[in-house]
Input
Amino acid sequence: MPDATPPPDGRRGPNRALGNPFSSFVNFPGLFVRGLRRLPKDIWRSRFRTLDGLFHIGTAAGGGVLVALFLTEIFFLTQKSWPTITGYGFGFILGTVWNPNPPAPVFGAWPYIVGTLLTSAIAMLLAVPLSLGIAVFLSEEAPSWLRVPLSSLVELLVAVPSVVYGLWGIFVLEPIMRTTIEPDLHMSLGRIPGLGGVFPTPSAGGDVLTASVVLAIMVVPTIAAISRESMRAVPDSQREAVLSLGATRWETTRLGVIPYARSGIIGACILGLGRALGETMAVTMTIGNSNHVPSSLFMPGQTLASAIANEFNNSFSPLERSALIEAGLVLLGITLLVNLVARMLVRGLVGSGSGAAGE
Amino acid sequence: MSSASSTPPPADTIAPTKSSRTGLYAVVAIIVIVVIILAAGYAAGWFKAASKSGGTKGACTPPGSVPLLGAGSSFVDPLMVNWESVYTQSSVNYQEPGSGAGIAQISAKTIDYGASDAPLTAAQAANASGLLTIPETAGAVSIIYNLPGVNARLQISGPVLAQIYQGSITAWNDPAITSINPNITAMPSNAIVVVHRSDGSGTSYAFTDFLSKSSASWASGPGKSTLPAWPTGLGEHGSSGVANTVGTTPYAVGYVDLTYALNQGISFAQVQNPAGQYVVPNLRDAALAVAAGDMALPTGGASWSNVSLINEPGAGTYPVATFSYMLVYKDLSGAYGSTYTLQKAENLVDWLNWTVTYGQSYSSTNYYVTLPAGVVTADQQTIDSMTYNGASISICTLQN
Output
């Protein structure tokens, strides 16, 4: 769908507002600007009395509510965290000591920022290959009697509350990590020169790696379900065309399906990343909640979200409350920034020519 | 579909039957769900609300029934849960997000009473003026540990604990630990997994109060707080979180209210008291701490920030004990405004009065210390000083 041909002013072409539905979720400001640009200029003159015009205004109002909510949120967070924004400046982001206790409270969110980025990055590293495997299997390989129950199972897993994953993490995963996986990692990867500090002798189960694995397991269903959907949306004529050229199953998937579903798959990954960045309960239950920059993957840490969950109930002083709200603002900023970078990567990856289903 | 009534080919007749059957299934499913919900509601007592109100017992007219809302300490939660279940005058809903949250919520006036194991600090008292402090029970903070293969009970002292929690003692076979544990011949060399609370906690306050009184470097470093800046270790949410992690993680050490240790069967250490004795936390010895500490308690409206049951004198006294406090406003109509009814005020006073008198009989079965008579009398004086529209609130509390 070439974006290069804008529809005639005031007339809505058939391609208007189509495109990748998942990228719409994650690139909200972009959508809004694009929507404004596409708003017909003569909407009040020519269309106001028609049902079509009412429909257009109604949906635009729906979008407007979303914009208003988003802006209100940013305004609220900034206003409520103004005392620490002005009081600590960039020291809030770069400081490594977080101690709300009198007489001299210090708020440095760097350990939390590191924890957030580290757990999400490891989670994506583990989750993306696995989910793509699941998606390809469900969409291309699985026999139909297996496809339906497995697909509904994946969709069911998306809806499992995070506290359940957290409980599973505490009672099942932590002992396995402590007794098997972490010692094995220490004995194998830890022996590679330079990696000994990353995989030291493990002590307790609640650490950065455990939380990352729980996060990975949580985002796999999201990524797999949406990727499968976008692969199923590729018309069968594509597959048949590639097969008719004598391609194997793998080549069909690689050449006929993945390029067409690529933007949907990347949208799915960005959604999964968003869930990993903001996840609170399951991380709080498994990460070990220590206010220090984790020196290895087997050390406890803290994410921005888990720090807020742990401390907000205890915050008496307005300054501490302000600091925690600023942590929320930083989390929002990180999410937007990561999305932006991911979008730019997608632009670079998909380019203008190769991705047929892209924008 | 329109031709379905006139022509009867089987392909067309199947569809309507199928859909009507689906509808039937849906109706049956809805009925079943409604019946289940009603049955569950009946079991939970939805339909008996009317039978509770009114009625007099003896010569005493109890106040009506307005639900009360409390929140705070998880230390005292097992006792609160028991109290809620036996107290029939009004329904009391207690939640346990931690002492810090209890103080924050009573300061914000979103609850009727707060519960905290830490007394209000000067700043907190200034933030919420007019709060009364009522000690409603006391308990021991146990030092729990998980040492596989060690059968003798661990002995520990305040200075050693402070070094463990500061990260300067990292292995179980550190000379500082082995030298005070002659009974344990083969102390493992494994690293100590230090576990603490990740949320604001009165148990943390009592524990760090103990560390501060035992170690100068702890006092000048992290200090005593409901949420100190822990130099090392693993943070877990709530007393049950700490108990669970220490119970399941080999070579871990932590601290919880004695109730959690006993209920979950986790080993707890003997702690050295100022007399040099290693004492197992138990009710009798914690009661000694309460008895030794209740000599000069402040009045309900005064500052309690220096009250502490840590390191009380006596050869058999357990050194890490703490009061648990209920926090209420002295002038209820003044604090909450005109929407706060007199009946609710009466209910609150009745509940407070009941907990410090009749409620005390449930303390020992839940591993808490029964308040000495002197503390109960002081509590009752504090409760009597509460007012509604300038007048004192007269109630007579029944045993149930």
Observations:
- Chain A has two domains: 41-80, 91-358.
- The interface with chain B takes residues 97-102, 170, 174-175, 178, 201, 203-206, 284-285, 288-292, 300, 302, 310-311, 313-317 of chain A (CB under 8 Å).
- Residues 41-80 of chain A form one domain.
- Strands of chain A lie at 98-99, 106-107.
